[in-house]
Amino acid sequence: MGKLACPPSFYFCDNRQDADACATLVVKGIKQATAPSLWWFDKHKENRPEVGDYHIITKWDGTPVAVIQTTAVVVIPFGQVDAGFAHAEGEGDRRWYNGKRFIAPTMLVRWTVKQTRSLTILLWFAIVFKLFFVH
Q1: Is the distance from CB of 123 to CB of 33 less than 8 angstroms?
Q2: In this structure, is residue 84 part of a structural domain?
Q3: Average pLDDT over residues 24-39
Q4: CATH code at 65?
Q5: Which among 57, 82, 79, 80 has a CA at the least distance from the CA of 68?
Q6: Within a domain: residue 124?
Q7: Three-state secondary structure along 51-99?
Q8: Segment among 58-67, 103-112, 121-130 with least mean pLDDT
Q9: Closest by CA position to 127, among listed 101, 98, 90, 99
Q10: Within a domain: 78
Q11: Residue 29: enclosing H or E segment and its boundaries?
Q12: Which pLDDT band holds residue 134 (cuts at 50, 70, 90)?
């Protein structure tokens, strides 16, 4: 049997507190989706997510917590994200705009009509393996 490639790893958000909180939400099965901007993938020349992709989710310090597999990917304007997706994202009070407070400093944007039209990748995932257990 051949060797399998190690999937890429990442943490959510742009700070320790939110990254670690999101990692815990993934392990608990609460966070089942995420919404990166299409702009980020294009700017960093990264491959866009595809159904079937595997990733290792880590805490801010790189500690792996879970292996996930992408189950669905949809690209839509940011302003069209619905409550069902926000609930699957599992952050904060599970409403979309409250959970996206970190986008403004990360992307250095102002909330305007233009940003609500910016394309966002809606990505749903399933836990394949838990590497870290929370109480």
Answers
A1: yes
A2: yes
A3: 93
A4: 3.10.400.10
A5: 57
A6: yes
A7: CCCEEEEECCCCCEEEEEEEEEEEEEEHHHCCHHHHHHHCCCCCCHHHH
A8: 103-112
A9: 90
A10: yes
A11: none
A12: low
Say how many domains are in the chain.
Answer: 1
* Helical (H) or strand (E) element with 49: none
Tens of pLDDT, residue by residue over 66-98, are: 999 999 999 998 878 888 888 898 876 655 554
On whether residue 4 sits in a domain, the answer given is no
Which amino acid makes up residue 80? Q
With contact defined as beta carbons under 8 Å apart, do 54 and 7 qualify?
A: yes
Domain that holds residue 55: 9-129
Residue 33 is which amino acid?
A
Contact between 124 and 70 under an 8 Å Cβ cutoff? The reply is yes
Coil, helix or strand at residue 18: helix
Taking the C-alpha atoms of residue 2 and residue 127, their distance in angstroms, rounded to an integer, is 24
